[in-house]
Design brief:
With about 250 residues, the chain is an alpha+beta fold. It is about 55% helix and about 15% strand.
């Protein structure tokens, strides 16, 4: 009886306090994770480096923040219906604990899927903006991004061959300061990005395999087959890309 009274007192005072503090700490952690990520992005001055950092880390940090909120919600839920537990007995304490843990597990998997399916669209928009942001030369002049037709005059033979090959979908951006002649070449590996799935519309469509179906010769182009799979709806697709003939890849 004494133990029961002590447990009731613990529930009414310490337990609820611990849970509320724990939930608040998790919310603060989520905010700090997002702020840390944005601070890291702001700290990077070069837009290409900023692009690479966002591409590699944004989804991961966003998921950590969401996970902290899920944990906070689960912890806070253990302060609800305390009066019912006190009136119906200690068994309901464990029932509440079991229910909240179950919902946390369900929330984990549901939100993980949502972040993986929906959030890449926002990241892709941010990446496009970063790639398009005006660059400035060391002289402080705004640079112009060259068109595909203009780029080749500023790329070496290996870069032209890599871009034209179609393998791994490498793309180069060339920025030119027309006043001083200074140029900046940025390499983007497009194959690392998820594309919009033609079936479900989510940005979960990725290259899983590249196969050279026909090798290029000095006179004939080759064929590269890219195999795509959607991680959401499992839609599969194979797309052919022409590989430039070997003679065209030699300067």
């Amino acid at each position: 009886m004494k133990e029961s009274k002590e447990f009731e007192l613990f529930l009414q005072t310490d337990w609820n306090l611990y849970m509320q503090v724990g939930a608040a700490i998790c919310v603060v952690i989520a905010i700090l994770i997002l702020l840390y990520h944005e601070f890291q992005v702001m700290k990077i001055k070069d837009y290409k480096e900023k692009y690479d950092y966002v591409n590699l880390n944004e989804v991961r940090f966003f998921w950590y923040a969401v996970l902290s909120i899920v944990i906070a919600a689960g912890i806070y839920a253990n302060t609800l219906a305390t009066e019912k537990i006190l009136s119906h007995g200690i068994l309901w304490f464990y029932v509440r604990l079991f229910i909240t843990i179950s919902f946390m597990v369900i929330g984990y998997f549901v939100l993980y899927s949502m972040v993986r399916i929906y959030y890449p669209r926002s990241v892709e928009k941010r990446l496009v903006k970063l790639r398009s942001k005006p660059r400035f030369s060391p002289a402080g002049n705004e640079m112009r991004r060259l068109s595909e037709e203009e780029e080749d005059a500023h790329l070496d033979a290996s870069q032209i061959a890599e871009e034209a090959s179609g393998i791994h979908s490498v793309d180069y951006d060339v920025w030119l300061d027309e006043k001083t002649g200074y140029k900046k070449i940025e390499k983007y590996e497009s194959y690392l990005h998820a594309e919009q799935c033609p079936d479900c519309g989510f940005y979960t469509f990725k290259i899983t395999k590249e196969v050279v179906a026909e090798k290029p010769t000095e006179t004939q182009p080759g064929i590269l087959v890219k195999h795509y799979v959607c991680s959401y709806c499992n839609h599969r697709e194979a797309r052919e890309t022409k590989l430039s003939s070997l003679s065209k890849n030699v300067a």
